[in-house]
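pasting for the record
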Amino acid sequence: MKFSDVIGQVHLKNRLIRSVQSNQIPHAQLFYGNEGVGTLPIAIAYARYLNCTNRRDEDSCGSCPSCIKYNKYAHPDLHFVFPIIKKKKSSGASDKETICDDYISEWREFLNRNVYFKLSSWLNHIRADNAQGTIYTAESDSILKKLNLKVYEAEYKIMIIWLPEKMQEECANKLLKILEEPYEKTIFLLVSEDPERVLGTIRSRSQSLHVPPIDPGSLATAIAAKYHLPEDEMASVVHLSNGSYIKAEEVLDNNVENEDFLDLFITIMRNCWTRNIRNMKAKGDYFASMGREWQKNFFSYSQHMIRENFVYRFHSKDINYMNTSESDFSAKFSTYVNERNVIELMEELESAAKHIEQNVNPKMIFLDLSMKIAVLLKK
């Protein structure tokens, strides 16, 4: 992954290149942005540029020994931390806690396929089922052990932490000292989609870099390289993606998960409006049978739909991001989402997602949320 492989983000690329050329390189940086805008790709491209032995003015060379190792994400001075699940221990196995190194082969294989992905795709790759991706406390000891070693062959030792908001609190706290007093030539690159959930003391010790939505022209070019679309369809895909390459691919693939989400969202809203408790309970059983990442993604989708239905009432297509099926439903449903209930609806969905994170019983969460929505829709 070179800078030239990152979709758009020209201003940010140039800023990072200038920082290297002027030798103004912070020891800890927090790249943050929405899912699909390229936070991880640009962090990897930046790490590669830092350790390239034959840097160009605009990019890494792609052919030096360092770049060749980066091609496979296997440079000895490049380390990754990412959400994982605990591996099942076979009989007679040691009590060693699961760490990211236990998944490094799967991680490299996954990155070699595509660096624009979301957490649920990675968890599906490692067959997480109902487990939530987490960066466990034991990872902090692994990080400290790696950083205690001397730089092997590069100019910098680089630790990329994808989704630091998934760190267990004890793990995050253990990293504070090394962020305060970093080893020489050691760089932390934290890559977040929800920086507000990153430990505040870690955020304060890192230079924050916002990765904005991908500009429409660059997104269209990236889509055109993979798909052949008529001009009007391309414009629609770019608009619906709202600057996210992942969302663009989901729109083009007619994402099955989003269809399931829409069907469930419609059913919930109808049950809540009619106050059909029996159906609420039945859907609660279905909801509880799904994995927790799926459940959290559904609540995120529901927030998206509430927001879009509120905006739909203004009849302004340029600020609405719904496909045809969503728009057809919203033509009538949008009248029930208004200034009297929209904020509370969003807050209840956010609260439900947090309770899922805390492993509260999903049936209880679903039924409680349904009862509250039933009241709010009547406002």
